[in-house]
Amino acid sequence: MLPAAGNSCSIQLFLLMPKKTSTYALDESLGHLASNASRAVLRRINQELSRRKLPITSEQFSVLVHVWDQNGSPQYVLTEKLDKDKTAMARVLSSIESLGLIVRMPGQVDRREKLVFLTKKGRDMMSEVADLVSAILEEAQKGIPESDLQVCKSVLRRFYRNLM
Question: Is residue 138 very low, low, confident or very high in pLDDT (cuts 50, 70, 90)?
């Protein structure tokens, strides 16, 4: 049905709308499924961190994992790898630093650059948290053949790269 005559703006917008050729089903949307799976894992991680009285969140853990993997990385590299804006990264790092888990130090060449290092307390805690997160991921993957997991990872990597 066309919009009422006399409203040329509405008619123009109506004519620009694509024809509806199929029904959108959330349960068939890869984006929706990936988002739901991610939220479920992050929710479980946060629940377990809280239950075990560990002082970090899943968001802080994701930053700490990168620091753990590449100790001494510049702050801007973490910002890029985690696809966060500078302000959000500075906020997360500041909160982790206040817990005594990391320290930010000026770069040797450019003193304005901040290098991020795990402290001993951070390294000790990361071993425990990494084991916890691994157990949660194992639970989430239970009953899924390894070949299916490899296909899933490959598809999600391509899905991500297509948008970057």
Answer: very high
List 106's β-bridge partners, or say none.
114
pTM: 0.78
pLDDT > 70? residue 100 = yes
For the chain, domain boundaries:
28-133
- Neighbour-count burial of 111, counting CB atoms closer than 10 A to its CB (0-12 exposed, 13-18 middle, 19+ buried): exposed
- Note the pLDDT tens digit of each residue in 13-47: 555 555 555 677 788 888 899 999 999 999 999 99
With helix as H, strand as E and coil as C, how does the chain read?
CCCCCCCHHHHHHHHHCCCCCCCCCHHHCHHHHHHHHHHHHHHHHHHHHHHCCCCCCHHHHHHHHHHHHCCCEEHHHHHHHCCCCHHHHHHHHHHHHHCCCEEEEECCCCCCCEEEEECHHHHHHHHHHHHHHHHHHHHHHCCCCHHHHHHHHHHHHHHHHHHC
What is the average per-residue pLDDT within 79-88? 93
pLDDT of residue 22: 65
Q: In this structure, which CATH number among 1.10.10.10, 3.40.50.1820, 3.40.1260.10, 1.10.150.120 belongs to the domain 28-133?
A: 1.10.10.10
